[in-house]
Amino acid sequence: MQRPKADNFTAISRTYNQVTGGATRDVGKFILSIAPKIDKSSHILDNACGTGIVSEEIRSIHKEAPIQAIDFSSGMIEVVRGLSEENNWESFDAKEMNGQELEFPDETFTHSISNFGIFMFPDSRKGLSEARRTLKTGGWIVVTSWSLVGWYQPLYAAFNRFKPNCNLFIPPKFPLWNTKQVAFNTLSEAGFKNVETLEYNTFAKQKNIETHVTLMTSSLKKQLMKDWPLTDISEFEAILRDEFEKVVEVDEEGNYAIKMNSLVSHGIK
Ligand SMILES: C[S@@+](CC[C@H](N)C(=O)[O-])C[C@H]1O[C@@H](n2cnc3c(N)ncnc32)[C@H](O)[C@@H]1O
Fold first, then answer.
1. Which of 36, 192, 236, 260 has the smallest CB count inside 10 Å?
2. What is the mean pLDDT, run by run of 10 residues, along the chain of 269 residues?
């Protein structure tokens, strides 16, 4: 599977927060709990900001700390600008920009945060070198990645049951970031000091299994399944529902939760 392009992200920009089921937000909150102090004198980069989940979490605790959000998807930037206008965020700017070619001077930011961004860039090393260039000496970087995405297993199993051996779905691989050791090495080799990689496990939560299935298939229908007859789609959805039932956990609030395990790698320039 190829790395997603900006248009793929634009296509899901309106549903992204629901699709992720709170998983990236939960990791975003964890990031802020380990971040060096954020205050008015900070300058924070929200790199590959998506719909602005990390910026929103920062704003919920720091009203004034200057934030620069960037993303290469115009749709994502539209959503985050809407959020900022709705909430009258001050000292906030969002720009459409490639994280592999940041348009900021050297030594600009005190905090460089990329929540599930740099790890999926086509060239993560270039993304890290740009993040390092634009970070002040002594500034803090954090990059998160998934070591386990609970959706992949039921999706993979459902496709294999539907059309055995066709390899219709192959989970994307992010080899620089998928284990604690390699994520640690990747950040260290990019020149950061005091690197540490922490494991933080969370869940993508929906109100029922049907929502998990619908959210999955609605994006598949635009790509992989776009030419499938309706009967095939219904048959596949029934299989997928069955596979989701095998892995989903019901939490104390009655949510249907899928495991998402993250790696949180952070260090200092
Ligand atoms: C999984 S989302 C993460 C969004 C958000 N940071 C969060 O916490 O939920 C990945 C984001 O990376 C962006 N992205 C991927 N490659 C990029 C690149 N080369 N430059 C800038 N943004 C990129 C996508 O558009 C998408 O919004």
1. 36
2. 70 86 97 97 98 97 96 96 96 98 98 97 96 98 97 94 87 92 98 98 96 90 87 95 96 96 98
In sequence order, which residues have a C-beta less than 8 Å from that of residue 225 and are 6 or more positions away? Answer: 217, 232, 233, 236
Decide: 203 and 251 in contact? Cβ < 8 Å: yes
Nearest to 83 by CA among 103, 96, 69: 69
Q: How far apart are CA 233 and CA 238, in angstroms?
A: 9
Task: Decide: 170 and 141 in contact? Cβ < 8 Å.
Answer: no
From 8, 67, 120, 144, the mutation candidate for ligand 1 (largest count of ligand atoms within 8 A of CB) is 120
Check: pTM over 0.85? Answer yes or no: yes
Cα(165) to centroid of ligand 1, in Å? Answer: 32
Indicate which atom in ligand 1 lies nearest the CA of residue 121.
Answer: 16
